[in-house]
Amino acid sequence: GEDVEQSLFLSVREGDSSVINCTYTDSSSTYLYWYKQEPGAGLQLLTYIFSNMDMKQDQRLTVLLNKKDKHLSLRIADTQTGDSAIYFCAESPGYSTLTFGKGTMLLVSP
Amino acid sequence: EPEVTQTPSHQVTQMGQEVILRCVPISNHLYFYWYRQILGQKVEFLVSFYNNEISEKSEIFDDQFSVERPDGSNFTLKIRSTKLEDSAMYFCASSEERTGGGFGTQYFGPGTRLLVL
Prior knowledge:
heterodimer; A: 110 residues; mainly beta; B: 117 residues; 7-stranded mixed β-sheet; 11 strands; 0% helix; globular
């Protein structure tokens, strides 16, 4: 079945860039998403990318997609302490449900 | 900005009891979903619902689970005879129909944390 893998933990200093990586196995993935979960809170949609795109930029967020390697990354520029959260990568073939990774815990230190 | 809401935020129940988790999806959305997240684990799909019927369900969604849209605004998940392993955060999500078919981006509610004792 489909699988989405992420590294579990990333620690950066405030002001640095963070890069969170994700790999997926489903070659029919059409949409790839990044969700953010703050402690005790729900899943907040950050951004998504359609599979015919290589890159999408939205303010401090840059999503890169390497479809050949089935690799997705989320870059957060000028990371702030408020960015500390768990970041989930998720994929969908577009007509079905989301398959999530386990999430990457981002810790931003002052 | 429209958002998905869920009630209650927390629910504690005894094993064997029935619980109903409630969700109010975004008003113009047509697809509705339930997911769950056991502590420390992945968010897992349970069920999707469209046009007043289940469109897809996972192997987790067995006979103890049911979903309903009792009126034009609410979407509920019922768990009959809860088990200890049902303890999890349950997320509701909704999406509109994407141009050209298929569901659009899913927006999640804040979740209901269910604890079964």
